[in-house]
Amino acid sequence: MRKLLVALTAFSLAAPSFPTLSVAEGLASSGSTSNRSKLFSSQARLLDGRLSSQYKASTKLQPGTKKVSYGVSTAIPSYRGSYKGVYLEDAKSAARKHGVPTDLFLRLVQQESGWKPHAVSHAGAIGLAQLMPGTARKLRVNPRDPKQNLEGGARYLSQMYRKFGSWRLALAAYNAGPGAVEKHGGVPPYRETRNYVRKILGS
């Protein structure tokens, strides 16, 4: 008998112990898994909804919309014009204020008006930066005031850059209008606009 008791004791010590899971713990585990599953499904639906809203708001992702070609980053050539008059510093100041490369804006003014503050184009554009009256009204500047004209021109060019993400396309939009750039998916195939962009950017 004594030998039997010793053997039983040794067996109980050698046998592996297995963790036990109570009924309550099992239900809690099951509920946790269910909750995690519901949470995951809820988050997935929320993410899908946000992506869907962004898709609808983006013209670039809409089927049938012509994609605008942004091209590579553009190197801005230096301004080498002969004009050194009073409006040069005003133009530089307006460019810096609106985040436009100074040389780019000086070259634009040179191309637009030749630094003539009272220049009027055949299309009705006015002043140093050749603002159209409608554009000047939207910008709330007086196009016949040289400083305000430069301020409006720099601000409008900056707006076009933020819209298209490229100085080449911003110049094209400044000359031909943003609608033309969107319609053609890049620089419009107009001789005047292509020459305009090439003369200012040098390429």
Automatic annotation (TrEMBL):
Signal peptide: 1-19
Keyword list, A-Z: Signal
Domain Transglycosylase SLT, first and last residues per copy: 92-189
The keyword Signal appears for this protein: yes
A Pfam family reported for this protein in Swiss-Prot or TrEMBL: SLT
InterPro entries: Lysozyme-like_dom_sf, Transglycosylase_SLT_dom_1
Domain of life: Bacteria
PANTHER family to which the protein is assigned, alphabetical: MEMBRANE-BOUND LYTIC MUREIN TRANSGLYCOSYLASE C, SOLUBLE LYTIC MUREIN TRANSGLYCOSYLASE-RELATED
Family the UniProt entry places it in: Belongs to the transglycosylase Slt family. Belongs to the virb1 family.
Protein name: Transglycosylase SLT domain-containing protein
Native source species: Litoreibacter janthinus
Lineage: Bacteria, Pseudomonadati, Pseudomonadota, Alphaproteobacteria, Rhodobacterales
